[in-house]
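Appendix B. Chain record.
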Amino acid sequence: MTSKNKRRGNDFERELVEAAIASGFEARRAWGSDGRSLGMHPEVDVVIKGYKVQAKRRKLFPAWLAPSEHVDVQAVRRDRGQPFIVMPLDMFLDLIK
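Structure tokens predicted for this chain:
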């Protein structure tokens, strides 16, 4: 039987694909959460309109990571690293239209 965490991760990947398809995009989930099934790197879980997504679902993540209700996106960067933007899924899907 599949572990609870594996099922939760699979559910999240399906949720991403379903949201993308509902927004009119082509989206695919990699079989077994392994991008090699799509001819890509093993870390690729989902492809949405050509964007390679690694899906991470956690019970808890740092509260500061999520944008507050007062901002649209959250920018984060490690020291000497590149910046990343954290945003709600629906905003991302609107941006790539």
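Further analysis of this model is presented in Appendix C.
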